[in-house]
Design brief:
The complex is a heterodimer of chains A (about 110) and B (about 110). With about 110 residues, chain A is mostly beta strands. Helices cover about 0% and strands about 55% of the residues of chain A. Chain B is about 0% helix and about 55% strand. Chain B is built from no helices and 11 strands. The N and C termini of chain B lie far apart (about 35 Å). The chains are: A mainly beta (about 110), B mainly beta (about 110).
Chain lengths: ~110, ~110
């Protein structure tokens, strides 16, 4: 496994603003992902953060709304842009190791949009 | 049919009881199976992988039934600290296809 540091842990934001969430891993990882967990629901994959290239987004998520950076193998950011109350959710970064397909998660960012 | 289905619960059980959760999945090509534990407002944490032969880790036993497409988690001698939501996770192939169940909430009562 790895130590995955995510910040901020929580934030309350105004409608129309943007928030950038940071994820730092204590070792180099190939696979890094961003998930969203809306209240009472399970985790939904937003995108795969690719090192040195554009992120790969899942259906229903677009780069303009959720721009992602991955400058190296230990760090990534997710920005939630032009926020609305519907974006209120927990956002989680996640890493995977090797071929065993186990995922490990950062501590999450609890976002509330007013 | 949902890709991964779990009974949301809550399962309210007394300390020391044995409790079991099931999770069904729809994709017969699924390759990897896991149980995660998620405490309130915390991130999911890997509890255990699930193998066809079944596997045990202390008080926890996980089973996979490929024919009926379900996995199970058995917790013996429940502790108060076992109170959490248990997520079933299924992976047909590749990280991007990992599918999480909505979780089963367990409350262990003194």
């Amino acid at each position: 496994s790895a130590v995955i540091s995510q910040k901020p842990s929580r934030d309350i934001c105004q409608r129309g603003t943007s928030l950038t969430i940071q994820c730092q891993v204590d070792s180099q990882v190939t696979m890094m992902f961003w998930y969203r967990q809306q209240p009472g629901q399970s985790l939904t994959l937003i995108a795969t953060a690719n090192q040195g290239s554009e992120a790969t987004y899942e259906s229903g998520f677009v780069i303009d709304k959720f721009p992602i950076s991955r400058p190296n193998l230990t760090f990534s950011t997710l920005t939630v842009s032009n926020m609305s109350p519907e974006d209120s959710s927990i956002y989680l970064c996640s890493v995977g190791f090797g071929s065993n397909e186990k995922l490990f998660f950062g501590s999450g960012t609890q976002l509330s949009v007013l | 049919r949902k890709e991964v289905e779990q009974d949301p619960g809550p399962f309210n059980v007394p300390e020391g009881a044995t409790v079991a959760f099931n999770c069904t999945y729809s994709n017969s090509a699924s390759q990897s199976f896991f149980w995660y534990r998620q405490d309130c407002r915390k991130e999911p944490k890997l509890l255990m992988s699930v193998y066809s032969s079944g596997n045990e880790d202390g008080r926890f036993t996980a089973q996979l039934n490929r024919a009926s497409q379900y996995i199970s988690l058995l917790i013996r001698d429940s502790k108060l600290s076992d109170s959490a939501t248990y997520l079933c996770v299924v992976n047909p192939r590749g990280y991007q296809k990992v599918t999480f169940g909505t979780g089963t909430k367990l409350q262990v009562i003194p």
